[in-house]
Amino acid sequence: TKFQEEMGYADVLPITRTYRNAQELIDIAGDFIQQNPSQFKKRLISPKSIRKPIVIFSYSDDYKKNPIRGKQGVLEQKGLKLELVLEKIIQVDGIRNNILLIGRYGFDASNLGRTSCFLYDKDRKKLISKKYPHLNLSFMTAHSSKGLTYDNVVIINAANEIYGFPAQIDDDPVMNLVTYADRSYAFAEERRLFYVAMTRTRNRVFIIVPKLKPSAFILELMKYPNVIVHGKIETDYQEVNKFAKRCPICGYHLQFRMNKNYGFRLYICTNEPEVCDFMTNDLNGGAASIKICPDCKDGFLTVKKKRNEDSYFLGCINYNSGKGCLKTEHIKHNI
Asked: 143 near 193, Cβ under 8 Å?
């Protein structure tokens, strides 16, 4: 994207014709990918037209109502919903059409193989529907599906989780030394992957979404008029939008994700760790980053609010009502 800037001259010839996707789908997907300001701006043109090309189905992910084990488990609910989606596709396009199931990770397929609806063939890495065993089902991750085309596509992982879509796992600092990571926009690479997943279909793309923890990408898609939603989705779930915050030190986007070293979710700067290692449990602490406690061996200082006051400080998690570590630090500037 910086070729002209670096080389001084270039003649840009954009490819704007597509014959894979319907115009309605590519309009949504194109606008979605271009939310990232670093993407080239262009509008694709297609001769095909399909009403409601993106269909979202929600399933219950309430662990209280659906115990982890047994046929009413959350994973089972997801399997049942996928089975219903396959049934809908067959009703419209028949049993002979080829369907691609897209996950964010390879284990998305093996997880579904633990439900009563599907079998997972480890050797062939193939998911088999028990109800429709002759259905031509393929499974791929979003990465491996690039460049391919199928009659219909089902995205089976659209959850706001560490291993959801967008993925929120900690970046590997070693891999960061040898690979390029676009940090100019929150979840830039994940957004490109989701665009890839949406545009592998000749017809429609179906998306399986948890009701309580929907992907931030799904909440974006629900705003478009040609997207249809079956079932309820909790649009007020707060954590999905927290990655839009910016670092108070360097200005890069913050991701709200699990940090395995601390054992809970934190706002973490997406800049290179060598440049900015800011992280906090509470943005009211301003530029105060949480850190290892200098007074005790296994504690660390987190942002805490003073009682009956609208001000914050850093305090050790081992405080324990005055019986443990009493280390505190004053925060000069709050936001």
From this structure: yes
